[in-house]
Design goal:
The chain is an alpha/beta fold. 39% of the residues lie in helices and 16% in strands. The longest helix has 30 residues. It binds 5-S-methyl-1-O-phosphono-5-thio-D-ribulose.
């Protein structure tokens, strides 16, 4: 049903270059840490879970090519790769989640046999990938209970197979409903400034022959006012202990509008997106990207550019109180989210 964004086969890591979509479906190989870091910075690969998976495989490939004389040197070089990968994008906690798992392996207290550590690193990267695949499946299955038949769903950014190791989180719920034969219509927000909705989600849905309509971000309120939206679903880049959700800029506006119009609004995310070290959303680092991304369609003369003030945060925080709930791979949690999150992670 879907085209995988990340393929690891015959010791080679390939990703779909998402900057080429929807015009071209092209896989590129990532051979080194600097190459992976550039690909992440340029959003050739993006989406919180996908970032973690790619970082894990890249760290393994780095471990494979290093030829250190001693374990201490090997570890030092991997620590450096860890830091470089982690610094690429600050908001998506899945990057840290995956890198920390890899670090735990190469810090192996049971012995410093480098070739054994390499094998374990590969197994861990594969496991991170596979677990995300399963988590997406589970999110889809749990989310199904929130979907009526027929249902019109509004979604934001891209949370599908291009953003994860499976069929997606919020989009996973949509795929699960379609697979069950539900009559679904999806409103896809453009997702300014980089058009992850227009370029990626719309492409995925077209590819899967799922009925959908593209709207500009600012059309969402009008659609809701006309009773054209039954459910709002988006993903998450990091979820704080109190249930505040960092996600693509515009998610907060959508949740606020959904509240005004009494439409259920859910974030969908695997356990790896929860950051229990963070009490509330205001502590989540928000990536600010080059303001030029905002201006790409507007034909300003270069000589005017220095006079234009730009502010381009890539994410915002939806306060927990604006969400009806969160769809996780372990089940759906509803209000009060803080208590439910505590319970969820206690039982794990
Ligand atoms: O800047 P991006 O494209 O990486 O932002 C992605 C999002 O905000 C997604 O909604 C989020 O990572 C969840 S993906 C399952």
């Amino acid at each position: 049903m879907y085209t995988p964004a990340i393929v690891f086969a015959r010791e080679k890591l390939s990703i779909i270059d998402q900057t080429r979509l929807p015009r071209r479906l092209e896989y590129i190989e990532l051979h080194s840490i600097p190459q992976t870091c550039t690909a992440i910075n340029q959003l050739k690969i993006r989406g919180a879970p996908a970032l973690g998976i790619v970082a894990a495989y890249s760290l393994y490939l780095a471990a494979k090519t290093l030829r250190p004389a001693r374990y201490e040197l090997f570890k030092k070089q991997l620590d450096d790769s860890y830091r470089r990968l982690l610094a690429t994008r600050p908001t998506a906690v899945n990057l840290k989640y995956a890198l920390d798992r890899m670090k735990k392996i190469y810090n192996n207290p049971d012995g410093h046999n480098i070739s054994r550590i390499r094998k374990l690193l590969l197994a861990e990267a594969r496991e991170i990938h596979l677990q995300d695949h399963h988590a997406c499946q589970q999110i889809g299955e749990h989310g199904l209970q929130l979907v009526s038949n027929p249902c019109t769903i509004l979604t934001h950014c891209n949370t599908g197979s291009l953003a994860t190791g499976g069929w997606g989180t919020a989009l996973g719920v949509i795929y699960a409903a379609v697979e069950k034969g539900y009559k679904i219509h999806v409103y896809v927000t453009e997702t300014r400034p980089l058009g992850q909705g227009a370029r990626l989600t719309y492409w995925e849905l077209l590819h899967n022959k799922i009925p959908c309509t593209l709207i500009v971000d600012s059309c969402a309120g009008f659609l809701m006012q006309q009773h054209k939206v039954d459910l709002v679903l988006f993903g998450a880049d990091r979820i704080a202990r109190n249930g505040d959700v960092a996600n693509k800029i515009g998610s907060y506006s959508l949740a606020s509008l959904a509240r005004v119009h009494r439409i259920p609004c859910y974030a969908a995310a695997p356990a790896s997106t929860f950051d229990l070290s963070i009490a509330a959303g205001k502590q989540i680092p928000i990536e600010e990207r080059n303001g030029k991304e905002i201006l790409q369609f507007y034909n300003y003369n270069n000589n005017l550019l220095p006079f234009i003030r730009l502010y381009n945060p890539a994410f915002d925080i939806t306060p927990a109180r604006l969400l009806t709930g969160i769809i996780t791979d372990q089940g759906i949690i509803k209000q009060p989210l803080a208590g439910e999150i505590k319970k969820l992670f206690k039982s794990n």
